[in-house]
Amino acid sequence: MTTSSQPKTTEGEAPSRASQPSIGTGKRAAGGDKREQIVQAALDLFVERGFYGTAVPEIADRAQVGAGTIYRYFDSKEALVNVMYRQMKLQFGQAVLADFPPTAPTREQFRQLWMRMAKFACANPPAFVFMELHHHARYLDAESRQVENRMLDLFTHVVVSAQARGEIKAGDPRLLMGMVMGAFVGVIRSCRDIDQPLDEVDWKLAEQCMWESIRS
Known about the structure:
Blueprint: H1 34-49, H2 56-63, H3 67-73, H4 77-97, H5 106-123, H6 125-134, H7 142-164, H8 173-194, H9 200-214
């Protein structure tokens, strides 16, 4: 494993910075944007301590604002985490699914999805960890669950279509997706544990291994 580069979606393509989310970079907002300061502080703390282990006054201290300031922007801690979850989930979906090739062979579709997820996770590690920590949490509201379900439906359609063509294994699409995402998250976590991100060659190897596990 090396730290020389981030994954690319196509051969020779440099990672793009233009489409990165505004949250998840670990930097404080310029110009004294208090709302963004609050979101960034909450992101840091939710990743470090979890939702239940983080108190509103701690978010205020980290954001360097008064506790009352948070309630000018968000009705509660639950409202804050839901706004963050929806924003990051939509940004993740945009990064992964924008210009997705619907008529490409399944092998190429899988490669595109995997490498785009890797690119997003490498560019925005706190945001990716946040989404995984809060996935299916009971404090997510109906709107957040609707966003999650829309994305799940899109991925499910890709799997079902590939199964109909006999290109990947038969079975419950959610089981196959769970296997892939479980492996992906495991790779991310192992890299975080040793503080050594994978480069593009490593990501390609991981993608090849996962494709071999689900192809028919």
